[in-house]
């Protein structure tokens, strides 16, 4: 077996944000030499990895040359230059997740086609190369209002997604390649993280539930385990597994799903990496998603995905009206509460809605954890000095 | 309140070994800028802290100048230049643990005097400025064989401790300041970590048990919780608390104790820092000892010291007959077992008995964890290429 630990082996990571930073905590634990590429010298990983390179993740030459420096390449963000990855792979570099899967996932249009091609349940959709084409379909009544609009590329965290209820809404959209999706009333938004290694060993984490703010339509809490029936949870895990198997995926795949009013499970979208919906695992699981990511890409045995305790995650986002050097107001008050762990991502500047960190709450009882999570959310504020 | 997180605040740490490395995992989680001083450019912390300085921890000027660069100073090893710390403290630098406590603890002779001065139960002892003085006491029959000899300074991990059973044993000892201690037959060796912050908030971790190899007289397993009666555990926690309170300690204090044949608790020695006996806490506790160390020295509220699960730690030490570039043989076999987490300290060279890492085993049932720990110990080998 190859020796990854305290050895000459170099792991390359495209992207040096908070996901990379939490991954570094695991590469440090196992002493895996880690080299990071990110566009910003201020990236959360820059100071604490073994070797940092600054450069554009979408630039062919930059990604290609970076790949030449490492023994195995992975990502912490999917918006990277895939052509460079294809060339590196053809020259023998191991890259996980596989470039072909990243290419499909990068575009929401090709993701949706992949689901229908593989009989994976998903909401009905159409694709358009431009806004004009979409408007044409609306005026033709080929699609009817309301519907969900999604930018084909570069959407994240609800960015690049809009509900179009009127012709005025349509006018606000950018002129980019996009899809329209049937608006599905759903009871719950769920997610399952699947880990799969090169040997095909596969494990799923428990189903988590994204609880939305009743008015703001923003995820407030990620709750593990989801407060749903076992039969629904089994169905969601099986759908997630089917997605991962259809890709013959290697790495971590986060599968976001809707539980519809009539208890269907529909795949919303996937992320080919560690995911916000799995942050609870650092404190609550036997194996954190970040350790599991390493295990899967290095073809090591996968770790136990069960939970030690119920876990809830609250995102720490910049408060409205605050831009500048960050202060975590009242953090000492949440540190007083048992089972509460803040994670600060190392971004010096806050701005409204910027993801600055998260807080995990663990407790034996998920209902009690949910109460504490609310208390945490109402207490800590991410403001500027 | 002072802002420590993503701020200009600089935490200084004297020592950059594995304890520092595990502390960095927590300073990274909270984005606390951390500056490390260590004699070796190859120290486990060197590459992954925010700022690394190379220098001798026992040199006055080096430690003093380092202290001038930081806002608060702590240690990960107690063998540092205390005169420099005294001067820095007198000039207003916050240093935790306090230099006066480090001075007492640095010498086993002054540690023992401290226990007797504060009515803390400990084995009877005598102190000697040299080996000649000790030999004189033996020939005078002021002390009788067998007894325990301890070097007053720079002992660690059983180093600097010998049982003297014969006059020949006496001849093998180095000529240094030392103590002799009554040889106490004991049932168990126990340890309790106490955390205390500047406000005087105090918490104790559960009692752990050091299980020794039946022949080799070496700690094989650290087991939490200790498999002892509740009344004994309460007594041990109370003794540990009394030690910390007597020091008016700030930081983490690891108190090692003997449970004698007649169920007395005697303090063996203390370490003014995170400790090998608390490594299990990373996976098993609500708050790891490393996070707790930060909370205590920064005068933050202390975290919950309860365990999520039973935890057992196995040290990974270099195998006999192996010196050179390290390989962790069969690590993939232990990764197959649920609840098993290896920690690799990042030392490139192994040599016999060098501490290279540890493995934590967590399980709901401590007896089952103990079985798995044995399996782990019998499987993984730290060898050279």
How is this structure best described in words?
Two copies of one chain form a homodimer. By secondary structure, chain A is of the alpha+beta class. Chain A folds into three domains: 10-95, 3-Layer(aba) Sandwich (Rossmann fold); 124-182, 2-Layer Sandwich (Dna Ligase, domain 1), CATH 3.30.1490; 186-384, 2-Layer Sandwich (D-amino Acid Aminotransferase, Chain A, domain 1). Helices cover 29% and strands 30% of the residues of chain A. Chain A has twelve helices and 21 strands. Chain A has helices spanning 18-29, 60-67, 82-90, 99-106, 108-117, 131-139, 167-171, 230-247, 281-284, 289-297, 331-335, 366-379; strands spanning 10-14, 33-38, 51-54, 72-75, 94-95, 125-128, 147-151, 161-164, 178-182, 186-196, 202-204, 208-212, 219-224, 251-260, 265-271, 310-317, 324-329, 340-344, 349-350, 355-363, 381-384. In chain A, the strands form four sheets. In chain A, strands 10, 11, 12, 13, 14, 15, 16, 18 and 20 form a nine-stranded antiparallel beta sheet that branches. In chain A, strand 1 (10-14), helix 1 and strand 2 (33-38) form a beta-alpha-beta unit. Chain A starts with 9 loop residues before the first strand and ends with a strand. Chains A and B meet through helix 1, strand 17, helix 11 and strand 18 of A and helix 1, strand 17, helix 11 and strand 18 of B.
């Amino acid at each position: 077996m190859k020796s990854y630990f305290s050895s000459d082996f170099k792991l390359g990571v495209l992207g040096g944000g908070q996901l990379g930073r939490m991954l570094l905590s695991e590469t440090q634990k196992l002493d895996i030499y880690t080299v990071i590429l990110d566009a910003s010298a201020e990236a959360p990983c820059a100071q604490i990895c073994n070797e940092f390179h600054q450069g554009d993740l979408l630039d062919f030459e930059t990604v290609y040359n970076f790949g030449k420096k490492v023994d195995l390449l992975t990502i912490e963000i999917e918006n990277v230059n895939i052509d460079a990855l294809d060339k590196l792979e053809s020259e023998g570099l191991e890259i996980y997740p596989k470039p072909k899967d990243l290419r499909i996932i990068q575009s929401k249009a090709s993701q949706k086609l992949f689901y229908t091609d593989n009989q994976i349940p998903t909401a009905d959709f159409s694709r358009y190369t431009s806004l004009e084409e979409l408007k044409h379909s609306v005026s033709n009544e080929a699609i009817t209002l309301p519907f969900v609009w999604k930018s084909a590329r570069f959407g994240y965290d609800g960015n690049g997604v809009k509900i179009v209820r009127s012709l005025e809404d349509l006018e606000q959209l950018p002129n980019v390649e996009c899809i329209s999706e049937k608006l599905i009333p759903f009871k719950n938004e769920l997610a399952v993280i699947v880990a799969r290694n090169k040997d095909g060993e596969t494990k799923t984490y428990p189903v988590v539930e994204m609880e939305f703010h009743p008015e703001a339509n923003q995820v407030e809490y990620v709750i593990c385990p989801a407060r749903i029936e076992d039969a629904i949870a089994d169905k969601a895990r099986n759908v997630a597994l089917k997605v991962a198997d259809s890709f013959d995926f290697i790495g971590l795949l986060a599968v976001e799903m809707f539980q519809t009013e009539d208890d269907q499970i529909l795949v919303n979208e996937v992320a080919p990496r560690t995911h916000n919906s799995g942050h609870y695992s650092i404190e609550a699981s036997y194996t954190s998603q970040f350790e599991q990511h390493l295990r899967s890409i290095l073809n090591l045995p996968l770790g136990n995905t069960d939970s030690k305790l119920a876990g809830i995650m609250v995102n720490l986002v910049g408060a409205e009206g605050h831009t500048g050097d960050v202060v975590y107001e009242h953090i000492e008050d949440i540190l007083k509460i048992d089972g509460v762990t803040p994670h600060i991502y190392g971004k010096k500047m806050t701005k409204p809605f910027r993801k600055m960190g998260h807080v995990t709450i663990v407790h034996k009882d998920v209902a009690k954890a949910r109460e504490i999570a609310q208390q945490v959310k109402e207490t800590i504020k991410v403001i500027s000095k």
